[in-house]
Amino acid sequence: MQAIDEHGERRDVRVAGERPLTLFVDGREIVTLMTLGAYPEALALGYLRTQRFVESVSEIAEVMVDWGRERVDINTRSGVAGWDEKLKRRTVTTGCGQGTVFSCTLDKLYQKPLPQARLRQSVIYRLSEYLSGDNAIYRKAGAVHGCALCREDEPLLFVENVGRHNAADAIVGTMWLDGSEGGD
Fold first, then answer.
1. 2-178 has which CATH code?
2. What is the number of H-type helices and E-type strands within the chain?
3. C-alpha count within 13 angstroms, C-beta hemisphere, residue 6
């Protein structure tokens, strides 16, 4: 793509392509996620998990992504209990754009304490070096975020997406599919 810079000069630039992906669960529209498109199944499942719509991956019967219609359909084995209550209140969040958090997430936010963890400063430095070298889309186009799943200083999965929450949800979905709880 060409753009005109602050000096009136034409420059070739790269722009990350953002695409809508509307999430349907058992035929019910839940939300439209703006995404780069990587890991769409994991993104949708991670979103359902972090929003506390579905408690176990065993409740999922199938996930079907249709980029032509810009949607992902997830069918559960026995429906989702309390849909109306879960979708009743939505909170628009701030950050790099706006996100949506449902009341079923906010209401339970502080019920589960985070585990106690210690991380050496040297590990943080090694991971920072890795992340700065692996964020290919950000280096070419900017304006995207990356998240990594690591064990100590070993990166296991790196995901870039439009927002940090989408990158994190794709990792959560991948972990869910792999049966990883993340305690290590």
1. 3.10.20.10
2. 6, 10
3. 0
